[in-house]
């Protein structure tokens, strides 16, 4: 009986995982499906000589973006804390939420975003950007 419950639990988890990681085929045409949002994830890898004060200044400026760019619906920022050791030096993660591609497309060339990129760029060794449609 215990083995059957374990197998059943594993199957349920596998089915849920497949659903959670499947693509958003309805969003391929560039339009948000009802109830979905566009996530814009930015991972930052700072140069070794960047100070804690410089990073704090960057964080302050990042958190101010939603006050300047109305298309940016939600912003979340955090420090990398994984114990797996696979972050490849990326230590700061920013997740932004847009209602649709049009909002993101306004954000990207927005003067306040461009100014932040120009300010932060020299502090970075690398940056990784990924966009995806939520489920």
Features:
HS1/DABB1-like; Dimeric_a/b-barrel; Dabb; four-stranded antiparallel beta sheet; Alpha-Beta Plaits; alpha+beta; 4 helices; single chain; 135 residues; 4 strands; Dabb family protein
Protein model, in words:
With 135 residues, the protein is an alpha+beta fold. It has a single domain, classed as Alpha-Beta Plaits. It has 4 helices and 4 strands. The protein has a 4-stranded antiparallel sheet. Helix 2 packs antiparallel against helix 4. The protein is globular and about 45 Å long. The two termini are 35 Å apart. The N terminus is likely disordered. Homodimer. This is Dabb family protein. It holds the Pfam family Dabb. Keywords: Signal.
Topology, element by element:
Layout: H1 2-21, E1 38-46, H2 52-68, E2 74-79, E3 92-98, H3 101-107, H4 111-120, E4 124-133
Antiparallel strand pairs: 1-3, 1-4, 2-3
Helix pairs in contact: 2-4
Order of helices and strands: HEHEEHHE
How does CATH name the architecture?
2-Layer Sandwich
- Portion in helices: 40-55%
Tell me the radius of gyration. Answer: 19 Å
Number of helices: 4
**CATH class division:** Alpha Beta
Major pleated sheet = 4 strands, antiparallel
* Poorly predicted tracts of residues: 1-30
User: Mean pLDDT across all residues, rounded?
Assistant: 83
What distance lies between the first and last C-alpha atoms, to the nearest angstrom?
A: 35 Å
* CATH fold-level label: Alpha-Beta Plaits
What structural category characterises the helix and strand content?
Answer: alpha+beta
What would you call the shape? globular
- Widest sheet, order of strands: 2-3-1-4
Kindly state the number of beta strands. 4
Domain unit count: 1
Strand content: 15-25%
